[in-house]
Amino acid sequence: MVKTIKLKRGLDINLAGVAARNKKLAPSADRYALMPSSFTGVVPKVVVKEGDEVKAGTCLFVNKNYPEVGFSSPVSGVVEAIVRGDRRKVLAVVVKSDRKQDSVDYGKKNVSKMSGEEVVDSLLKAGLFGYVNQRPFDISANPSGTPRAIFVSALRDMPLAADFEYELEGQEHYFQAGLTALSKIAPTYLGIGKKHTSKALHEMADVTTTIFDGPCPAGNVGVQINNISPINKGEIVWTVEPTAVLFFGRLFLDGVVDLRRTVAVAGSQVKSPSYMDVLVGTPISTILKDNVIEGNNRIINGNPLTGTPVTDDATAYIGAHTSEVTVIPEGDDADEFVGWIMPRVSQFSVSRSYFSWLLGKRAYTIDARVKGGERHMIMSGEYDKVLPMDILPEYLIKAIITNDIDKMEQLGIYEVAPEDFALAEFVCSSKLELQKIVREGIDLMLNA
C-alpha cells in the first residue's frame, strides 16, 4: 500500500500565466549550448576544441574533481565556440547543429539484468551521470560514493512549475526503465503528489512510492527526504530530477543520449502559456520568439522562486535541470501612489496586509521587485510556517551568517539545499537572500 504523508506547513502562490496542457511546436535552432553552471559543484574541463565535429552523446567537458564524469552534447554538429567569462571560467560550449542528427550508439540494454556497477558505468560512458546529485551539499554526485538511497520527486509545485505528469504521458516505459536502473544502485524512493492521477505514477515497480499531500514545497526532494528518511552525518543519498530519469531510460532502451524535455513556457508576460518539447541547451530566445508581451520583462531560466534571470551566455540556454521558462514584469517602471501604504485588492500578501485575501482564490500578477531593503533579521518564526522540515531554519541561517560550523551541523545543514529556502526567502520580512546564504553555508561545509 502506498503511504501518504500529509504536510501542513508551506505556501501555494497562485500566479497568472500557468502553462495550458497543450504543446506547441518548438522552432528549430541553429545552435545549442551546454552550460557547466547547470551542474552545481562541477569544475569543468573542456575536452573538445572549436571546429571539432561531435555527435549527440559526445562528451564536451568533464568534471575536474571526478574526470570520469563527462557531459554529453545534446546535438550533432560542429563545436562553434567555447564561451568564457572572468578568469577564463567556462560559461558554455556552443555546438552549431547540422541538419542530419547523428547519435553515438551506446547499445540497448536489459536493465532488469544489470548490476548497480554496470548501471553507473553506462551512465558515465554516455555522459549522463552528471545529472545525478548528492546530499549532503546538493552537488553533482561522486560516482565512487555509495548512496544509502536514491530519491526522485515527480511532484513539481513551485509557482508556474511544469507538470511532470503531463510530460510523462507516452513515456512511462522510459521512466520505469530509468527507475529500475536506479534501483540496482540503491533502494529508490519516488515521491508523487496527491493530485497525480496517472496510474503509471502510482504503480511504478522497483521503487517505494510515497504520496505527499500538502502545499508547496512538498515537491522539493529535500522536504521528501526529511519526511521519509532524514540524512544523518556521514551518510550519502542521491537525488535525480524526474526528467533525468527519462534520459536514463532512453539510454538503456534506445541506446542513445536523447536530452529532450518538455518545458513549460509560462508567466503573466507570455502571450500564450503552453508546453514545448525542446533539447537541453536550446536558446531561450528561440523558445520565446513572438510569444512575449512587450514591456520591461524579466526572463527566468526556471520558475520565479528558484530560477536564474537570463542575463548572459551562462543563462541564455535551457539548463540541464530547467523544466520551465517564465516571464514576469521587472517592475522597476512601476509608479504607485503612496507606495506600500496604499490598501490593495489585487496584490498577493502572506500576512493579509492587503484586502486581496477577501476575494478568494485567484491568480496574481507579481513583478520582480523585492519591495524593501535588507535589514536586521527578525526572529518571528515566519520561516517555520513555510518550511515543512524538522529543522530550525532561522537559527540555521544565523549560524551560516556567523560561519559557526558546529552549529550548522547541529541545525541540519546536511539536509538542506538552497531551493528548500525559496519560500522562506519570499516571505522574509528582512529581505535576506536566503538561497544565496544557504549555498554559501553548504560550500563552507564542503571545503571545511
| Number of H/I helices | 11
Main sheet?
7 strands, mixed
Total strand count, please?
A: 20
Strand content: 15-25%
Backbone structural class: alpha/beta
| Structural shape | globular
**N-to-C span:** 43 Å
Radius of gyration: 22 Å
Low-confidence spans: pLDDT under 50, at least 5 residues? none
Rounded mean pLDDT score: 94
- The amount of helix comes to 10-25%
Strands of the largest sheet, in order across it? 1-14-13-12-15-10-11
Summarize the structure.
The chain is α/β, with parallel strands linked by helices and 448 residues long. The protein has 11 helices and 20 strands.
Explain what you see:
This protein has helices at residues 116-125, 164-168, 172-183, 199-202, 221-228, 242-254, 284-287, 393-401, 405-410, 422-427, 434-447; strands at residues 3-6, 23-24, 31-34, 44-46, 53-54, 59-63, 66-72, 77-84, 90-97, 132-135, 139-140, 149-153, 188-193, 208-213, 237-240, 260-266, 274-279, 297-301, 308-309, 324-329. The chain is α/β, with parallel strands linked by helices and 448 residues long. A hairpin with a 3-residue loop joins strand 10 and strand 11 (139-140). Helix 3 (172-183) packs across helix 6. It starts with a strand and ends with a helix. The model has no long low-confidence stretch (mean pLDDT 94).
